[in-house]
Amino acid sequence: MLSLARSIQKSWGKTLKLPKSKFPPRVAPQDWDKYSQRCTDTLYDWQNKTRPAENTFVLHDGPPYANGTLHVGHALNKILKDIIVRIQLGRGKRVQFVPGWDCHGLPIELKALDSMASNGLIDKSKPILPSVIRAEARKLAKETVDMQLEKFRKFGVMADWGNRWTTMDKSFEKRQLSLFHEMVENGLIYRRFKPVYWSPSTGTALAEAELEYMDNHVSNAALVKFPLVDIPSHLASDPLLQGEKLSAVIWTTTPWTIPANGAIAVNEALEYSIVKTDSHGLLLVAQSRLEYLENELKDDITVIIPTILGSELAGKTTYRSLFKGPDAEPQPIIAADFVTAGSGSGLVHCAPGHGMEDYEACLAHGIPVFAPVNERGEFTDQALPSDPSWLSGHPVLTRGTNAVLKYLRVNGHLLSEHEYEHKYPYDWRSKKPIIIRATEQWFADVSSIRDLAVKALEGVRFVPESGKQRLENFVKNRSEWCISRQRAWGVPIPALYNVETGEAVLTKDSVGHIMSVIDNRGIDSWWTDAADEPAWIPPSLQETGTAYRRGTDTMDVWFDSGTSWSGIGASADGYPADVYIEGTDQHRGWFQSSLLTFVAHQRAANKSPVRSPFRDLITHGFTLDEQGRKMSKSLGNVISPTAIMEGTILPPVQRKGKKQSETTHDALGPDALRMWVASSDYTHDVVIGEQVLRTVHTSLTKYRMTFKLLLGSLSDFHPDRVIPYEQLQKIDRIALMHLYNLVTSSQKAFDSFEFYKAVNAANRWANLEFSAFYMETIKDRLYTLKADSTSRRAAQTTLFHIYSYLQEVLGPITPLLVEETWEHTPEAIKTQIEHPLQRVTSIPPSEWQNPALENDYQDLMAARSAINSAQEKGRNEKQIGSSLQSFVHIALPEGTESSALHRYLDELPDIFVVSSVTISTGESIPEVIEKSEWHHVEEFELNGQVGKVYVYPPQDEKCHRCWRYVVPKTEDKSLCGRCEDVIQEFDDKLEEAVSTNY
User: Fold this and answer.
1) Which residue in 201, 383, 481, 806 has the fewest CB atoms around it within 10 Å?
2) Using an 8 Å Cβ cutoff, are 587 and 474 in contact?
3) Do the record's keywords include ATP-binding (predicted)?
């Protein structure tokens, strides 16, 4: 028995308490679903059943569009939402996060048409029944929602997936129509013939939020002269003008709008001149634009009348239209504030059917709206009634523009033409230029609720703060909202039209009646029922004997999604949601439509004060590649979230023990995607690429190894053996101070939605304060001391606190990793603490926050850095390998006897990871240093004074168990006294165990 015990005893390695954990260095892809399920669906169900309903946090999902596969922009958005929700879960809230999808609109309709055409089901050149389009669009939208839902879940997003909503749900459409009904009742919906953004490529009106601007659009600009008919009397009597033909000069980047010209505008405060040219007669132009005119005409000009105020011209001058024929009534020159002398000629051609400002200016003077352009963006016969063949059927942006310029040139009205590069609006779906075109459209009155909407934003927290000004500006600069679209796939605008006159009927009673029919027959019946189906006509209209037809316009998709707050219900203080978070483009889209519809609803209900639908409004940027370019398929720089999780975006690696030819991709998992999101300052555009993901992978690997080390070190720890704070060693208290700073700074960053600051703090802590400092200092007592020694238990106590709080810090960011750590947590610990993702986070004990320890730490680090530098010199000269192969002497100046180095003297060997540390004050140094075969010295600063560290060879022998050089050379033994005690205890316990077994 004793011989057996002695043989085991000689295996000193078995007496070391090295970390033991089965926590893997990397998570296997086959385990992703297991951990994801636990930390998403299971966790959401748990909190929904156990957390009190009166303490609910609501994050309302801005619905992604159900069209196409997910990209990293989707991942950025959904993961940010999930992080916010998980933080609030950690604050003890019940969270409500119900995902939604925007399912109506043109892109899905076009995709449906393409799908049916490619399958030979339709001929796109022929009319197609709306019911056919709607059925295919609904099918495609549902398939896309199902596909996107599953991919979102792969990101580790915790949400109420089972109750997800879409804008094509019957219940959603019913609430949307109810709000529309409410707005009709309150006079906020009206129909008007006026200019709107029109997309010839998709044949529908657009909202401003559906535009994107191309910076390098090229237009054919022109200088055009309009013959004046009447001029002010004092000019008409001027001898210099007698018998001369005088023309007003305009400059335009849209010559195709000249057939719809209704007026010419001047600025009353500007000064104008009449000049004579050799080739073009007398011309009226702004005085400040004479040099520009001369350069453009390549002609000498002579000033005839130097100064005429715009106020003298406005209302007293008329001119002849260039396209309406000689018998047309002369048209007026009017005043408008938007006319400037900064470009062009200082006179502006106004086409009220093709310009928003033109419309407003002409409306004030009773000038009718005229827009001779059809829904395909082609001229109609009315563009040039006297000879329609010139223009009719030509697309206005291409052949139509050329035809107009040719007509002007042939008739002597074109002064010059040139290409002009400028910013121009495009249809964000077809990526083709739009036009402004007057049509009959339905509008929501924004002007009457605009002030209320701006006031509702006063109580909102914006992240970043600049978002408030941006959203306010969009609302303030808007007077109405075009809500009608000329498509089949959407919620119908429930209007009826007099078959004979075309007059629209949209009243409280008519909309209410139509809603009840929709409720009974289904929304598709609006399109499928016979045209003369009487069920849709309210009794009050049926009694008149007049025939009515149902309208074909659908509602703007922004109106659809903008009413989604109606599915939440406002909280006690009036806010439906605590947080809205979407991309910066939503200031003119979903944020604005949600605000306007909610304010309209509150005004109808006489609510006071009026609230916004969100308490906090957060915006994030777009995703860019590492060259700062926006991601697009054409550039080939699009990155799939799946590729990131599977690691295929990074080069393959060779695993240890594998052949040179055997490589594999290092799967990064959902947490890598999440770590990228959390570590980005999302208030700006966010960069992603191989280098960024390498950094993310490095951070995740560090956390995995940290948890593996913590779990291994706590494998024999029980929470009921926690050492009180006052009994911890000084270095343990410094570690807890660092932990306190990490936790509180992370919580502060979480509260301000600055997640990247929490990640930065955690990365810094993991690499410097924990790994490079604390773990290095405690390895000796953690691994070599008696299992139940106070010193070792103090280190484990500290590690236990670190483990618990690190789980809480990383829980919102890397929930799968934290879930996995819980699976590997020792049972003794599991029975004493809550699941990390179910805990209510707390601030660490205040006693851990000790500024004096921070000062001590800085002094210790200054000395440690100097020691490391001196040791590096020894390594370079092949004098030492391990840092334990060195003794250290610290020489401090007079007056530093109370320094941290003195007070921590008994812990300095652990802190510096050396075998011995001595300190002296003054100039003299121990003689042993001078006599040693080598030594290295480095200086460091201590409280404004200079200290020195000396690194020299150990003066004792190496202990073959703990490897410290602490065995006196006078003693012929292999172990130090401390290790002998541990071995003896181990031997005694082994003998006792063997005796018991025998």
Assistant:
1) 201
2) yes
3) yes
What sign results for the dihedral spanned by CA atoms 982, 988, 993, 997? positive
Place of tokens 């192969």: 885
Here the tokens at position 625 are 């590649």
Of 492, 462, 590, residue with least CA distance to 64: 590
Contact 108, 489 (CB under 8 A): yes
Contact 268, 337 (CB under 8 A): no
What local confidence, expressed as pLDDT, does residue 430 receive?
A: 86
Which alpha helices (DSSP H) does 714-850 contain, by range?
730-751, 755-764, 775-784, 790-810, 815-823, 827-830
- In whole angstroms, give the CA distance from residue 173 to residue 132: 20
**d(C-alpha 146, C-alpha 167), whole Å:** 14
Q: What are phi and psi of 223, to 5 degrees?
A: -100, 125
Architecture of the domain delimited by 854-960: 2-Layer Sandwich (3.30)
Short-list 615, 583, 617, CA closest to 465: 617
The confidence score (pLDDT) of residue 6 equals: 44
Q: Which residues contact 791 (CB under 8 A, 6 or more apart)?
A: 729, 781, 785
Residues ≥6 apart with Cβ < 8 Å to 607: 574
CATH topology of domain 206-437: Isoleucyl-tRNA Synthetase; domain 2 (3.90.740)
H or E element at residue 938: strand 936-942
Classify 51-188+448-474+561-620 by CATH class: alpha beta
pLDDT score of 3:
43
The answer to whether 258 and 408 have CB atoms below 8 angstroms apart is yes
Which residues have a Cβ under 8 Å from the Cβ of 117 and sit 6 or more positions away? 123, 124
Report how far apart, in Å, the C-alpha atoms of 831 and of each of 243, 720, 794, 819, 835 are: 106, 11, 21, 16, 10
Please give the radius of gyration of the chain, using alpha carbons only, rounded to the nearest integer: 39
We find that the CATH architecture of domain 17-23+642-849 is Orthogonal Bundle (1.10)
Encode 674-684: b = buried (16+ Cβ within 10 Å), e = exposed: bbbbbbbebbe
The torsion angles phi and psi of 472, rounded to 5 degrees, stand at -60, -40
In 111-150, at which residue ranges do the beta strands (DSSP E only) sit?
none
CA distance 343 to 262: 21
The predicted pLDDT at position 251 comes to 93
Question: Is 49 exposed, middle or buried, given 0-12, 13-18 or 19+ CB atoms closer than 10 A?
Answer: exposed
Residue 203 gets which letter from DSSP? T
Concatenating the DSSP letter of every residue in 561-622 gives HHTGGGGT---TTS-SEEEEEEEGGGGTTHHHHHHHHHHHHHHHTT-SS---SEEEEEEE--
Task: Give phi and psi for 734, each to the nearest 5.
Answer: -65, -40
Tokens of 927: 């003689």
Please tell me the distance from the alpha carbon of residue 997 to that of residue 440, in angstroms, as a whole number: 98
- pLDDT value for 663: 54
User: Do residues 425 and 223 lie in contact, with contact meaning Cβ atoms separated by under 8 Å?
Assistant: no
Q: Bridge-partner residues for 285, per DSSP?
A: 273
Structure tokens of 62? 């801005």
Residues of the chain with pLDDT under 50: 1-9
**Cβ neighbours of residue 21 under 8 Å, at least 6 residues apart?**
708, 711, 712, 715, 824
Domain range summary for the chain, segments of one domain joined by +: 17-23+642-849, 51-188+448-474+561-620, 206-437, 854-960
DSSP letters for 855-899: HHHHHHHHHHHHHHHHHHHHHHTTS-SSGGG-EEEEEE-TT-TTS
β-pairing, 331-335 vs 263-266, is: parallel
Round to the nearest angstrom and report the end-to-end CA distance of the chain.
9
What are the phi and psi torsion angles at 435 (to 5°)? -130, 170
Question: What are the phi and psi torsion angles at 962 (to 5°)?
Answer: -95, -10
C-alpha to C-alpha distance for 343 and 358, rounded to whole angstroms: 17
Q: Evaluate whether 691 touches 801 at the Cβ level (below 8 Å).
A: no
The token pair at 179 is: 């709000």
